[in-house]
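Lab notes, practical 5.
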Amino acid sequence: MTYCNEQSKSPFLSKEKKNIIQNALKVLGKKHMAFIAHANSFPAEPGKNTGFGSINSNSAKKLIDFLSGVFTDIQLGPAGKTKSIDASPYTGTIFSGNPLFIDLEQLTSNEWFNILSVETYNKITENNPNKNTNKTAYSYIFDLQEKALKEAFNNFKNTDCKELKLKFEEYKEKNKFWLEKDSLYEALTEEHGNDYWPMWENEEDKSLFNPQNEEQKIQYAKRIKELQAKYSDLIDFYSFCQFVISIQNDKSREYALSKGIKMIADRQVAFSDRDNWAYQSYFLKGWYLGCPPDYFSEDGQMWGFPVMDPEKLFNKDGSLGEGGLLMKELYKKMFRENPGGVRIDHMVGLIDPWVYVAGKKPKIEEGAGRLYSSPEHPILSKYAIATLEDLNPEVEADKEERIIKLTEEQIKKYGALVEKIVIGAAKEVGLDKDSIVCEDLGTLTYPVVSVMKEYDLQGMKLIQFVVPENEKHPYRCKNITPRSWAMVGTHDNEPIRMWADQTVNTEAGYLNGKNLAEDLMPEASDEEKEECAVRCSKDSAYLTQRKFVELFACKAENVQIFFTDFLGLYDVYNRPGTSGEQNWSLRIPDNYEEVYCNNLKEGTALNLALILKLAIEARGSEFASLHQDTIKQLESLI
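Output from the prediction step:
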């Protein structure tokens, strides 16, 4: 199958041409190239758009075919169950999967004993208000998906599919430790008429898995059995949805692996309301996770996410406590299901989290501080790893530069969660630390930097965010280290073309161009470098091209490319600090092949052949001369 006509000379035209791209990536020392696309952004086939994307659809298979042979991985977003009022995947559940990712079409097939009627499926696709756009219809599909799944579940119960029903029972038993809690929460949502447990009137129901004494333990166990009996069908329905997600996900990942592509999961820093309720005894009472005041937020960011109690993470002898065992099981599940690894969102939240008092702002003067780095704090000092002697007394507690030194023992303590839980989980399922992708953008405190270095973990380099005035900035091409993942942007950034349009005709445009000229034109004359800098400051298309060359010319062993940048889309997936359905809704167009080819002709999509050629040449004449054959092969694709 071809993606563009012969005149467009797309590098994706054939296996032979894909091999040329692969070889060029190896020449540049790239081990992985990941395509960033959250599952809800996956496209649909004509007439099959339910309003939400999924890696389990037939269209997802075709996208995988399109990407295979060039991309080695697909970086997904968090896959947990979200709320009807919030589409953000970063507030989803940690164990339960999102039922919106179930491919309904499969349930109409013989494979699933036709448990969903074609009529119901067609009605959903026909009435999708966004069926002709590349946007999700979250509010539309949220309720309709559940109704369709209930129809499927009722038919499943009345269908003679003994083998499938046996697998369902085995699945429930295997995943009982988390599925029992998550499904019971669904029953309590029905019982109390809302899915936010702090608003439930029954105090007992708020703490069913958090008894304070033996009497409560017996009392709560009785209440749990009552609820399980009263809502047995609803609980089974919840479990059924998780069962279907599991089966479909396994098959989709197997298909991707057969095409040479691995899925990378995304572990958010948050815990959902459901998780908070189920494991509240593991959390630090009266404290929440957030961000201190900064340039973007004068009062800081009140995330409202619970904080794992350090004394529940580890026992006094250093072994894993109840909370630590829970976290390890979570990571084992994620690594087991995603052989490409796990991206850890907000790495600082795992190593050196900023916490604040419930009901107050995340500001120092209102009692906030870093959980493990506040030896002077009246309450948090009991958890401090850093001592007063490790601090710069002239730097405030919310600043990155506050801690100036740590011993090897202290670094090990800061890294205990990473070593014993994350790395430990990866090893237990047969993966190594290179399967861990650390989102360390933004705040980088000394403990985070030290732990990353101690365990040789791979962080991220976001070249769109380079500070051009800083000669030693870590996101600049010449400073990017091999052990990292480089990218021009993530799901939280504007496409590189949009960034370039806003950067030209500013001092930043010239300074970026000056740096790019110095790093990518090592043997050019001063006049040629100045010409490049000036052109970057005026020509956004040229500045965009130079940034892509920088991405592949840098020494990073791994690169990630967000789907908007690859396809040449001029739209934003998420704007941090804002809310509304415009966020998390952008999808890959259903006619993405046509869009890619057209944008390739227009020069707005990523032309890998051209960029890789320029990246090889940017390494210098000696390097380029060693790879003339590769350059010529790439030129044949341009």
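Observations recorded by the TA: The two ends are 20 Å apart (CA to CA). The chain has a mean pLDDT of 95.
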